[in-house]
Amino acid sequence: MNEHTSIRPPREIVLAYEPAFRLAATEVRPAELEVEGPAGVRPLEPRVMKVLVALHRSLGAAVSREALGQQCWGGRIVSEDALTRCVVQLRKALAADPAIVVETIPTVGYRLQADGGAPTRAVRPPRRAALIAAAVAALAVMAALGGAWLWSQRPQAWAASDFRPLTSEPGFKTFPALSPDGRQVAYAHAALPFAPRDIHLRAVAGGEAAAVTSGPDDDFAPAWAPDGDRIAFLRRSPDGGCAVMVAIVPRGGERRLAPCREAGAHPTWLDARTLVVADTPAGGGLPRLSAIDATTGEVRALTAPPPDTLGDNEPQASPDGRQVAFRRTLRFGADEIVVLDVRTGRERTLTRDGWKAAGYVWSPDGRNLLFASNRGGGLGLWRLDARRPAEPEQVSLGLGVVSFLHMSADRTGQAVVEIARPRSGLVRLGPSGAPEARIVTASNDWDPVTGPDGAVAHISDRAGAPDLWISAPGGGATRLTEGLGSYVSSPAWSGDGRSLAFIAVIGRQADIFTVGRDGSRLLRLTDDGRDKRSPVFGPRGRVYYVERRGQAWRLMTVDPAAPGAAPAPVPGGQGWRSVQAAPSGALYGQRQGAETIGRLDGGAWRPAAEVWPYESWAASDDGVFILDTSARPRPALWFQPWSAPRRRLPDPGPMAARVTPSALGGATLGEALTEAVDLGLMRLGPARR
Predict the structure, then answer these.
(1) Are strands 656-661 and 647-648 parallel, antiparallel or unpaired?
(2) Residue 254 and which of 381, 407, 466, 602 are 20 to 30 A apart at CA?
(3) Strand ranges for 280-333 from DSSP E
(4) Are strands 596-601 and 414-420 parallel, antiparallel or unpaired?
(5) Which helix (H) or strand (E) holds 153?
(6) What per-residue confidence (pLDDT) applies to 442?
(7) Is 472 helix (H, G, I), strand (E, B) or coil?
(8) Contact indicator for 397, 378 with CB cutoff of 8 Å
(9) Is it the case that residue 668 has pLDDT exceeding 90?
(10) pLDDT, tens digit, for every residue of 547-562?
(11) Which is it for strands 445-450 and 435-441: parallel, antiparallel or unpaired?
(12) How many of the other CB atoms lie within 10 Å of CB of 267?
């Protein structure tokens, strides 16, 4: 047989690409897995919907069981009971519309009728009438196509619906990944926030979770292969090594695919053989996207981020594997969403306003990109048209507290997201490391720093967007900024405790500001927009900070008492990547590539104490507090005198996240008190009109 005489079996139905249609008084929406008739909206299981679509395609003719197996089960052998169960569910869903009948044709299969009677044979009209009818039909088709095209160009509101929790057991479930058929979700699970994670697998319909990996390694960020039989994930070993792994699911063995240097983002599959990851190149440089051959392990670069950015991260392949969306970070707190055409290498920037972009997913048809952003205040969900320039539109939610930092979607529009109820603790430590005061909130609070009177300045999202707040140990909080930009960070007290310096990202620009402790006297100290970190008040009341130009960092200073004065480089500050001020005003910092912090002394950087890159530190006049969150079974707090070995301090607790300076001679500790992170399932799609 040749291609003209052979009979090709029908392909399996892909619901995401099936248009809505009507049967009598009932509307069928395949991509949304629902029918709407006289009794209201009824959901259908994906397989039941495929049976309905297959019967509808036959235009009233009988459809054999074999054809239904090809179209609805991908040619797999189907038991009589499975097909019968689908038909029974279909009849129940359509029972409210008496004009629709699903008939059983003995020894053959099934037939769908939407008028209650047998199909009639059309009578051939006279030739002239036939030509007129054909012309009218052609015009109708052209009008319908034109209307459909115009409709497709209209912006359409999107909404989330049918939300339900997927997990509820103790622990932290993050990096969710829905299987291509939407039946299973893989995710990283840990008992505590900083504990090693394992990959778990759970059926969306319910039941117990099964561990795919176990052991001392930190396994996270799973990604399903398009055929659904493998999962790629990232693995960090206790010695600091990093690898891209592939495992056959549920328990079919694993293999190391390629090394990595900076594990932190979801991998994504272009096709059954090609995996895309974000990683720094060998020899250093900015994070970029690379493609890995899943058979040979060969790696090739896909992007080359500009040197004045912080690199590319979080790749997400489109449903057809022809495009990859990713986040290009311009400044700390300012992002762009970019789409790469993997065939041509052409990049298109979809957002240019600098607002943060967290997790994102493609719509099933590849037309839309849904992403989390703080452009509306809190971290909400927004939609972009991936094919033409358009302003982002907010997606209607009404789901309560939902984090979209990591999310995943399948071919039907189902999406799984993280659910967190954030709680933070701010702890003031005395010089001995013992807690002296604690502030616990029901929000996300970070970047704490203690002032001369014991008040703690910090960033909080308790009012929605990140803003600068002051919390007093005895109670009471004051908000100092309100919607200043897309992100604020890194507060620092002046020596007299009357004002604070901080960084605000407005649009694509990051600059240094000061504000009075009562929220008055807001002053912009810099206006160059370059990436900046860790402002502090130093000698003579000047503000010091580090600035990035390309990939080079340096220490800068600006005088708040001279508004409009240009910032100036600090002698001996070349290569500084961070800076802190001890209560005496002495400046300490860490330089690029150094595993030591040093003191600025007479225009030179003098080594002062060994601190590893993964450790958090806070300078005091007598030494440096060091928090090691990688220590097991819980984080470890140390004090390193400037001229003696470090000594262990009392355990800070299992949720200790970061140690920061205190003007009282001790340190300030941030705690992540969130008790659990769970997963929830919802449906994303155009809002019903």
Answers:
(1) unpaired
(2) 407
(3) 288-293, 299-301, 312-317, 323-331
(4) unpaired
(5) helix 127-153
(6) 74
(7) coil
(8) no
(9) yes
(10) 999 889 999 999 999 8
(11) unpaired
(12) 26
Interatomic CA distance for residues 72 and 94, integer angstroms:
19
pLDDT at position 70 is 85
Backbone angles phi, psi at 247, to 5 degrees: -125, 140
User: Which residues neighbour 12 within 8 Å (Cβ) at sequence distance 6 or greater?
Assistant: 50, 70, 71, 72, 73, 74, 75
Asked whether the beta carbons of 115 and 99 are under 8 A apart, the reply is yes
Sign of the Cα torsion 309, 311, 316, 317 reads positive
Query: 581 with 534: CB under 8 angstroms?
Result: no
C-alpha 141: how far from chain center: 42
Beta bridge partners, 666, equal none
HSE-CB of 361 using CA atoms within 13 angstroms: 27
Q: How is residue 452 written in tokens? A: 């001369």
Residue ranges of alpha helices (H) inside 527-682 are none
Whether the predicted pLDDT of 63 surpasses 90 = no
Quote the CA–CA distance of 377 and 392 in Å, as a whole number.
Answer: 14
- Is 62:68 a contact under the CB 8 Å cutoff? no
SS3 letters for 5-60? CCCCCCCCCCHHHCCCEEECCEEEEHHHCEEEECCEEEECCHHHHHHHHHHHHCCC
Measured over the CA atoms of residue 291, residue 292, residue 293 and residue 298, the dihedral's sign is positive
CA angle, 681 then 49 then 152, to 5°: 75
pLDDT for position 374: 77
Residue 688: per-residue pLDDT:
65
pLDDT surpasses 80 at 500: yes
DSSP string, 643-682: TS--EE-----TTEEEEEEBTTSSEEEEEE---EEEEEEE
Distance (Å, whole) CA 140 – CA 300:
50
Distance from the Cα of residue 502 to its chain's centroid: 26
Confidence of residue 657 (pLDDT cuts 50, 70, 90): confident
Could you list the beta-strand ranges (E) of 239-345: 242-248, 254-259, 268-269, 274-279, 288-293, 299-301, 312-317, 323-331, 334-341
* Amino acid 548: pLDDT: 92
Cα dihedral value 306, 321, 52, 186, nearest 10: -80
Alpha helices in 315-430 (DSSP H): none
Structure tokens of 59?
A: 């235009």
E strand or H helix that includes residue 445: strand 445-450
Question: Apex CA 52: angle with CA 46 and CA 55, to 5°?
Answer: 140
pLDDT at 28 over 80: yes
* Sheet with 242-248, edge to edge strand ranges: 218-224, 230-236, 242-248, 254-259
C-alpha distances in Å from residue 3, one per residue of 67, 241, 532 = 20, 53, 64
pLDDT tens digits along 537-548: 999 999 999 999
